[in-house]
């Protein structure tokens, strides 16, 4: 077969006789079908999927089996299936959202043209067994290949499974990696793991995305800027767009404010559920994709590879984690070639959040060694929940550490329990050196980001330089600095600022009851508190900062006690609350009880000194998993004046709420005597990440 001629024919059959390959596309296709290991680094929207789908079709017509495409996101999988259908390819995906179809898919696996799976699927015994029965696989595609590298901006341990898979493949199988974000260091690391690669690297400057970076603003100022821009600016008020936030909580807050100001918006993040516990993220993304929602407010969950051609703008409400992530995310805009806008907003709190992400990503070699030692002492194996009580870390962090050990094959899975791999030695010293280098790199990336927001030259050129792009010496000509003007501004006396300030100062939240104890047993409904309230969900808002300052000096002001007493008046009346109880503290012995007494007096109900601290405990904020948080409260408090609690509707007051374990334990003890308990805290300090 003349692969070159047939590739051109396929392009014309699909996209019309006038269609032409972009520079580098045909060359990359030919490298793949000639079984060269290939890495394609091209800007978002360039058409990397065209390379692997036409290569797939060429190989299939030449008698090969289906291609295996490894992709990190469900959203990306759906985009790819749609793109492949245009070329007449029968492409299937096996993921958590189509379990009902698995049997049918597995039954016809050998007959399809391509299989799209996540890297996690490479550890699924059923999938690996099914794949081993498929003959003549000649192409493995690794989408978002920068995720293989420890130095990539979005390194994922699951991608190590790909490295393990590739090592065992014969030379007759082509390997294609694609990404938009790999600098020289990442390229060399990918080569070291996948073998020598032919690299097709294109220019990365996006000539249709105009970047504007605002000066540091408060959250209220940023909300006002967004709401005003989306309703008043002649370009933004008719375009669909994405707003990125660092945390889930911020996504909800921003989306809610925009909705209140008349903009169609929806939050989007991992773990979205409706009241029935059903995942709502797919429906939300489809509503945005179909134009039913104009603005989607997302975490990085909506990141790599999401392909919607008519996104007109991308706004960062907070700093991205690094510049390469930023380039990846703004690349969602303008994929149809039309002018698009990228605006970077930021505030003083962003750096602390990013530093916490860097810290949580750290795999401390000492900790890894301790976990391996613990597991080695249990030949029968240990589950994650067996391991958790031994370490003061949250379940997400432990899950990340165990995944790291598992995909690097230091531990294996046997009957759903982790066991030591006797054939793999853990080199603590080598891992320590790697972690130290990674931390230095991540902190340097943060410094580069801080320099970027204060840069006075071409923004796109700065990013291209960070990516070692071939066109890093060029200027985009369309960013705010190149044009010497801000594209969107807002007067300091704009009325939306006052509206946003009121919203942030009164961003009341709810405290929902925990349903299970830390051992995963159900909490009896009779021992659960009712849904309660927080005055603010934002410790960084002006009112949140005020509350936290007064908390730190152990004295709530008269203004605060009156403010809280008035706020709770309607709740107290509506729920027939007839007594107030304070959460005690040895560190701040008079703080919450004085507030609780003031609330009781203002609302003419009883204050009961019902909870006593029987011994010092650790700071609850320093306990990082549910087992330790539950134990830390359970062992340090006791009930008194039980007779006064009988049949009471109680308001349980604390200064802050985070994990909800303090409220959960105390409420369960109160409910042995009281009728109902409604919790209240001034500030929710949980990050909602």
Automatic annotation (TrEMBL):
Domain Helicase ATP-binding positions: 29-200
UniProt cross-references to PROSITE patterns, sorted A to Z: HELICASE_ATP_BIND_1, HELICASE_CTER
Keywords carried by this UniProt record: ATP-binding, DNA-binding, Helicase, Hydrolase, Isomerase, Nucleotide-binding
Domain Helicase C-terminal: 229-376
UniProt superkingdom: Bacteria
Group of enzyme by EC: isomerase
Reactions the enzyme catalyzes: Couples ATP hydrolysis with the unwinding of duplex DNA by translocating in the 3'-5' direction
GO cellular component, as recorded: bacterial nucleoid; cytoplasm; replisome
Keyword Cytoplasm: no
Homology family: Belongs to the helicase family. RecQ subfamily.
Protein name per Swiss-Prot or TrEMBL: DNA 3'-5' helicase
Gene source species: Macrococcoides goetzii
